């Protein structure tokens, strides 16, 4: 009996040993792979100083030249793999997106709200995305054109004859459009309170995360609480009236499975954050590029005047409509080329959720992975003479995965149609009714955090006579 037991024990131990060897073989198979080429710099600080002491694009470009399109580095206490090849970016963002989760500093998550769409993967993310896309798909935003027209016209009228900081003024335009898409035309009084709180939040967003009375961070966190309270008030008054709303809040509140007030607030604050500065920055670059390229400006102006002329000839109502915005191919190419040249989101962040084998290299679990949109958009392999502003290059579609101003895959920008629409409407009124002169030095770029023309592009705007 004892003998049989010993045989069983030996077989059992042998099987465990075999299983262990098999598991080790597979995991070592990955672990044995080399890390991507590159340097990690000094202990702890890594290469943070090299990145931030110069234009970040020079840092990325020098690394790509030395190590190729996948390389490792160490920034702000994190080990990173940076990716500048279109195929590899697609793998991270689309094909193997489940292996790379979005990642943000904890202080930014606290400020925007932990339940906001950007920070999630899986079922909760899919549910939010469906609700956000429902509010921003073409069929939903086409009805917004008359209101966007009014906001654009009011904005331009308020600039007449003044020396303005284009970026700061455009932030008001894009804020107003974002609020229209989120709350519709209602909530006029709450809208001003929302704006006031958001401005405080914005000021603290890039401050040191020290939550003590008097600090910008503390004030921002307080404003964030107030924002959530205002939104809760709006939600409760909508619940009382039971009306159907086709805006983003309506989409969130209409969800059968139900989002909590807190989830709704986090996502509304998140969408304002995603929508406002991005679109204002791109529009600022459009004004700059049009100002510097008179032939392009003339072609855009002709296209826009043609729309007015044909409306006059057909006796149509003289208000820009959704279908008019579909007759602007030249203006669309200007927007595409601006998105490419300015590449305002130079890169994005993901984090490997497990050890990943990637093009013959190991990306260890926990390392950050950064697809470098700007390098892809500025590579001569993808775009000939890449530093030149030339909208005509978009007469032909770019090669697959080489043009990703709105990202790609599961987290690609759900607001891209609205962003394009508000830019088209603005450029229509700008070029048909106004001329402008750029004031002061023209060559500098500031980072706030997006690359922006120096001093926000000061201009003077005059009505066309
Ligand atoms: C020209 C303006 C804009 C640009 C260049 C832009 C760019 C982007 C990019 C690159 C991403 C993906 C980031 C990543 O993968 O990590 C993104 C995500 C996002 N954008 Fe935009 N965006 C713009 C305007 C807007 C607008 C107007 C809205 C809303 C109305 C919006 C809402 C969002 C949201 C909610 C996400 C997160 C999506 C998710 O995580 O599933 N964006 N945007």
Automatic annotation (TrEMBL):
GO terms for molecular function: (+)-abscisic acid 8'-hydroxylase activity; heme binding; iron ion binding. It catalyses: 2-cis-(+)-abscisate + reduced [NADPH--hemoprotein reductase] + O2 = (+)-8'-hydroxyabscisate + oxidized [NADPH--hemoprotein reductase] + H2O + H(+). Its cofactor is heme. Pfam families: p450. Keywords: Heme, Iron, Membrane, Metal-binding, Monooxygenase, Oxidoreductase, Transmembrane, Transmembrane helix. Its main location: membrane. One of its GO terms (cellular component) is membrane. InterPro entries: Cyt_P450, Cyt_P450_CS, Cyt_P450_E_grp-I, Cyt_P450_sf. PROSITE patterns: CYTOCHROME_P450. It comes from the Eukaryota. Its EC number is 1.14.14.137. Pathway: Plant hormone degradation; abscisic acid degradation. Heme binds at residue 413. SUPFAM superfamilies: Cytochrome P450. One of its GO terms (biological process) is response to water deprivation. It is a single-pass membrane protein. The keyword Secreted does not apply. It is found in: Membrane. The chain crosses the membrane at residues 6-26. The keyword rRNA processing does not apply. PANTHER family: ABSCISIC ACID 8'-HYDROXYLASE 1 (PTHR24286:SF10), CYTOCHROME P450 26 (PTHR24286). Belongs to the cytochrome P450 family. This is (+)-abscisic acid 8'-hydroxylase. It comes from Arnebia euchroma (Pink arnebia).
């Amino acid at each position: 009996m004892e003998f049989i037991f010993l045989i069983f024990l030996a077989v059992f131990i042998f099987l465990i040993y075999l299983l262990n060897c098999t598991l080790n073989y597979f995991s070592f198979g990955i672990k044995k792979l080399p890390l991507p080429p590159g340097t990690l710099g000094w202990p702890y600080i890594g290469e943070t100083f090299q990145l931030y002491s110069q234009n970040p694009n020079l840092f990325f470009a020098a690394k790509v030249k030395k190590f190729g399109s996948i390389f490792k580095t160490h920034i702000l206490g994190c080990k990173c793999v940076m990716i500048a090849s279109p195929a590899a970016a697609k793998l991270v963002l689309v094909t193997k997106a489940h292996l790379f989760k979005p990642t943000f500093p904890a202080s930014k998550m606290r400020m925007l709200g932990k339940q906001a769409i950007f920070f999630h993967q899986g079922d909760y993310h899919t549910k939010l995305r469906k609700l956000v896309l429902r509010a921003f798909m073409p069929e939903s935003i086409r009805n917004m054109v008359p209101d966007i027209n009014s906001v654009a016209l009011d904005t331009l009228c308020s600039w007449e004859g003044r020396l303005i900081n284009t970026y700061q003024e455009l932030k008001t335009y894009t804020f107003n459009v974002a609020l229209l898409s989120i709350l519709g035309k209602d909530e006029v009084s709450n809208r001003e309170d929302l704006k006031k709180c958001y401005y405080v939040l914005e000021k603290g967003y890039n401050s040191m995360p020290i939550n003590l009375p008097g600090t910008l961070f503390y004030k921002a966190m307080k404003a964030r609480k107030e924002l959530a309270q205002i939104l809760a008030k709006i939600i409760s008054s909508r619940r009382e009236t039971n009306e159907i709303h086709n805006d983003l809040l309506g989409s969130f509140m209409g969800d059968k499975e139900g989002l909590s007030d807190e989830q709704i607030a986090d996502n509304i604050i998140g969408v304002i954050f995603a929508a406002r500065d991005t679109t204002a920055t791109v529009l600022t670059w459009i004004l700059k590029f049009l100002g510097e390229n008179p032939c392009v400006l003339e072609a855009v102006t002709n296209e826009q005047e043609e729309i007015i002329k044909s409306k006059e000839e057909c006796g149509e109502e003289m208000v820009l409509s959704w279908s008019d915005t579909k007759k602007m191919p030249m203006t669309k190419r200007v927007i595409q080329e601006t998105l490419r040249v300015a590449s305002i989101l130079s890169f994005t962040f993901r984090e490997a959720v497990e050890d990943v084998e990637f093009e013959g290299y190991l990306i260890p679990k926990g390392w950050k992975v950064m697809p470098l949109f700007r390098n892809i958009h500025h590579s001569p392999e993808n775009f000939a003479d890449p530093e030149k502003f030339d909208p005509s290059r978009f007469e032909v579609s770019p090669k697959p995965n080489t043009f990703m101003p709105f990202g790609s895959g599961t987290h690609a920008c759900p607001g891209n149609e609205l962003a394009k629409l508000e830019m088209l409407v603005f450029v229509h009124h700008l070029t048909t009714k106004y001329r402008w002169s750029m004031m002061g030095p023209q060559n500098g770029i500031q980072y706030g955090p997006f690359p922006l023309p120096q001093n926000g592009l000061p201009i003077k705007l005059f009505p066309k006579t």
